[in-house]
Amino acid sequence: MKLYTRTGDEGKTSVIGGRLDKDHVRVEAYGTVDELNSFVGLAVTQLDAKIFADILAELEKIQHELFDCGGDLAMISTKYPYKAADEMVTFLEERIDQYIVEAPELERFILPGGSQASATVHICRTVTRRAERLVVQLQKLDETNPVVLKYLNRLSDYFFAIARVINHRLGVKDVEYERSALVFRDPKSKKESN
User: Which residues does the UniProt record annotate as the domain Cobalamin adenosyltransferase-like (predicted)?
Assistant: First the structure.
């Protein structure tokens, strides 16, 4: 099998159901999801299997799901079923809820970083946000699986949550943004302190 086909030399690429210009927002969207998947793979290489077995299993699952999302975004024909489903979103929500409890309480904005793995996961978070913005643009122009947008929205929150847990498990403190107001205070605890 050859890795090159020469069919893209004129600035077009094949998608499911036809061909598009390589700078089409649909191609930008699934290309950004592919970029994200590569950064997730990088994060996986930076996590110790003994400390992060749960997160590693989840990241592998997410890599497969990102492939599903990319396939859905690359589809301009409606004759094929979408792969991304609501259960994927629900799973992320459940994991986020668990990790929020594990990480130290957060009151201020934090800077991306701490440990190398956490910094990489923050890159995953920001690339996810870019993919999400591109999917919003795509939805204004054309039909696509609406679950992909929900999934990406929740996935960026998941990455934020695990970036903090990674630092916590490694004994590395998150770096608070020094000019941040108290933005994450729990309204219940505020009432209790008055």
Answer: 3-165
**pLDDT value for 186:** 60
Domain boundaries, the chain: 12-193
User: How does pLDDT run across 71-115, given as a tens digit for each residue?
Assistant: 999 999 778 899 999 999 999 999 999 999 999 998 889 999 999
Q: Give me the residue label for tokens 């997410």.
A: 62
Residue 131 burial (CB count, 10 A): 28
Residue pair 43/120 in contact (Cβ under 8 Å)? The answer is: yes
**Stated pTM of the model:** 0.90
Q: Which residues of 73-109 are buried (b: 16+ CB within 10 A; e: fewer)?
A: bbbbeeeeebbbeeebbebbeebbeebeeebeebeee
CATH no. of 12-193: 1.20.1200.10
Which secondary structure element, helix H or strand E, spans residue 21, and what is its range?
Answer: strand 18-21
CB-CB contact of 142 with 26 (8 Å): yes
- Cα-based distances in Å from 160 to 128, 140, 179: 11, 27, 20
β 110-111/18-21 pair status = unpaired
Q: What is the pLDDT of residues 160-176, one digit of tens each?
A: 999 999 999 999 999 98
Q: What is the pLDDT of residue 194?
A: 37
Distance CA 156, CA 170 (A): 21
Helices (H), the chain: 25-45, 53-73, 86-102, 116-141, 146-170, 187-193
